Amino acid sequence: MRDDTDISAALLAWYDRSARVMPWRVSPADRAAGIRPDPYATWLSEVMLQQTTVAAVRDYFRRFTDRWPTVEALAHAQDADVMAQWAGLGYYARARNLLKCARAVAERGGFPESAAELQTLPGIGPYTSAAIASIAFDEPAPVVDGNVERVVSRLFEITKELPDAKPDIFEATSRITPTLRPGDFAQAMMDLGATICTPRKPVCALCPLSQDCRARESGTAETLPRKKPKPVKPECFGIVWIAQNQGATLVETRPEKGLLGGTVGFPTTDWRNTPIDLPPVAAEWRTVPTNVRHTFTHFHLTLEVRVAQTQGNPERGEFDPLFDPAHLPTLMRKAWDAAVPFL
After folding, report:
1. Of 46, 139, 149, 304, which residue is the catalytic one?
2. Amino acid 179: pLDDT
3. Residue 156's Cα: distance from chain center in Å?
4. Is 11 helix (H, G, I), strand (E, B) or coil?
5. Residues 44 and 120 in one domain
6. Is 46 in the active site?
7. What pLDDT score does 206 carry?
8. With left for phi above 0 and alpha for psi between -120 and 50, is residue 312 left, alpha or beta?
9. Which residue in 20, 150, 165, 258 has its CB near the most CB atoms, within 10 A?
């Protein structure tokens, strides 16, 4: 195994040849020409990429930056507009923190440049602060996401189960993170994990670190990183009511705290084993034949979908004549798609 400096040099040389093209990324050639990454683009992309794939994020990132090209522009956006643009990306607390963070950054006149200071901003934790500090400000902060955990656990054959292995992985990542080009190194590690050192069937023959990889040598690469068994997710149930009044659709804004917080959707019951059936407006409700199924981080949810045409006054929400299903979160869009043929 080569020393830490040679490992980072080999990875950077591979990145210079093979870096993925991202709308938020400055290429190695442009970096060499003196073009620096925009911390706003780096921050926005990192927040969007949490729990989400690159393929899903590309279009969202372009729409956001077309509409709000700077952090100051985003800071002045209306909450409802940002939540509508975020619809479908999931984990809606990220969108609420996005606005809080943008306003804090605009108030202080720009992003702080160290990982420690970045963590004082709303919604920015250890990983995101390290990524921004490294990529946008050249701080040699170790950046460890899921891809990096996989690469490093295999490279050094760290056999502890996650999450117990995290301190060892962080320490090993710290050792090989270079002082020069730390941001490119962080992105190279992410690219390596996403394209070559994949969860199944890693392409070791193409890996720039194959001669250094202890797991490849011992034949354990596909078994790493090891993870503790996931607990069985509980099953929850609920009812969603979709009503129309002369073409207007009944919607409500969910409370800011909680799942789908701050988003616009249809009235529902609580999500529990025995939901309480209290419709939001008097109507002759009909149950559609297909339930909606959705999985959250900690549980599975099944919703019974009920529809009605009514001229009653709602006790919850309001009828919106300009309702646009494109701005619904994924769960509500599933309910809408199930309901449309029966409205």
Report:
1. 46
2. 96
3. 28
4. helix
5. yes
6. yes
7. 97
8. beta
9. 150
DSSP labels for 176-232?
H--SSSHHHHHHHHHHHHHHTS-SSS--GGG-TTGGG-HHHHHT-GGG-SEEPPPPP
Q: Determine what percent of the chain is predicted with pLDDT higher than 90.
A: 91
Nearest to 261 by CA among 82, 39, 20, 11: 82
- Banded pLDDT at 279 (limits 50, 70, 90): very high
| Domain that includes residue 146, residue range | 4-227
Spatial distance between the Cα atoms of 5 and 2, rounded to a whole number of angstroms: 8
* C-beta of residue 261 within 8 angstroms of C-beta of residue 87: no
- Cα 59 from chain centroid (whole Å): 13
CA distance 293 to 300: 7
Whether the predicted pLDDT of 305 surpasses 90: yes
pLDDT in tens, 165-221: 999 999 999 999 999 999 999 999 999 999 999 999 999 999 999 999 999 999 999
Last residue of a domain, one of 210, 227, 244: 227
Residue 299's pLDDT is what? 95
Indicate whether 212 and 277 sit together in one domain. Answer: no
**DSSP string computed for 41-96:** HHHHHHHHHTTS-HHHHHHHHHHHHHH--SHHHHHTS-HHHHHHHHTTS--THHHH
The last residue of a domain, from among 199, 227, 255: 227
Domain containing 253 — which CATH number? 3.90.79.10
